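Field: sequence (string)
Field: structure_tokens (string)

Example rows 1 and 2, in order.
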Amino acid sequence: MVEELATPQLEKIIQLESRLTGRAVDSLHLFLLEKSGTDDPILIDASEVTLIDTTAIQVLLSAEKECISREKQFQNNNMSSDFIGAMTTLGLANVVDRWRDGNV
């Protein structure tokens, strides 16, 4: 299950599950599809991720692409070492840097 946490700035941060495989990816995909239809920025916290599969990374890349096309903020500036390792293994180290900075 995907969880949103409110910050003091009233921004909602999407807390990713520790294991993003199988049904967890399906849940994330549906949640991000719904979120992409709003004006809210997509702010991700991946600090608890210990396992992430390629499909989950593809879902996040797709969400980022949708945000760019809608001129919405997409940011993931709290990534676990396991999350960063998976991204780096797939040749996406540059995406890690981009996500930390946000796209807008």
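Row 2 begins here:
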Amino acid sequence: MSHLHDISQHEIGRLRIYMTRGDSVPAAGWKKFFGTPLFRHLVNLAQKDGILHATTHSTPYGFAQGKNVSEQHPEYSKKCAVLYVELTAERQQLEEFVKAHGELLQDKEMTYKHMERWKLASASQSLRQISVPAEL
């Protein structure tokens, strides 16, 4: 069977940083009463640092290590609700991100998973990329 597309593979990784909705970045002045949510700050830093993908995922029910079980409520936001920020990029880039922003992450649970990134190319495009002209 002839296929119209080829798959190219590239090794990348996924880093999950777990936190609660109430975790925030310390702020100065009058903003210290509100602070920026840590999950938003991390996504913005990831974009600035050139991370491939950054998303947040909230959980409807769960707990963080050493904390009580929390449930999301449709009418109000609980500051103890668990969520995670997921970053996808090459392992070295993720390691650099963690080292550069260690002061924000030192008490956070983090997990890393190796993955493959797939890209589709048409079979004719792939042949053009790997074909070598014959020398006369």
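free_text_note (row 2): The chain has a mean pLDDT of 83.
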